[in-house]
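Q: Structure tokens for this one, please.
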Amino acid sequence: MRFLGIDPASKTGFVALDEHGEVLRAKELTGVGGVDPKRMVTLINEVVDHLRPGDVICIEGFPFDTQKAMFAGGLHHGIRNELYKRKLSYYEAAPNAVKKFVNVTGWTGEVGSKKRLTGPQKKKAVMKAVEEHFDFTHSSDNVVDAYIMARIAMECFFVQETNSSLLSNYQTEVIRKILKGAC
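A: Here is the predicted structure, written as tokens:
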């Protein structure tokens, strides 16, 4: 049994974990070329090439604000369509839930003087939190996000199988929310 995390983006993060949480594969997928639809189609095919029957999958939800909305929407739908065609169900984690699973809120500082983390700052905070929580590092923030989603897939599966959890409160909250909206 494998637990997959997929972070759809122009550089798509992909992580596969075994049943013990050990990394089997962690890579960034990019497709071929820089012109669509070839890039998008080949990127979706790259993702599909890594899928196996029985995989337990978590995919990041649609981004709320993106400069490349058409590409993001097409990629997200394309991957979901391929999962559907292969009869592979999946959990969907909202972008903020992915960060919350490792206790990153998007803010820094003390109460009364908090500052919002910007894109690169937030990505670094997530990468640091993943290293602290799971001792996992990777040079790509997309792969790190995919790692979180693979862990979420694993936890969702085990919570559904055992009806119990050993997670922290913030992680349990994320899992409960995802399970309420499971596909």
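A few notes: The chain has six helices and seven strands. The chain has a mean pLDDT of 92.
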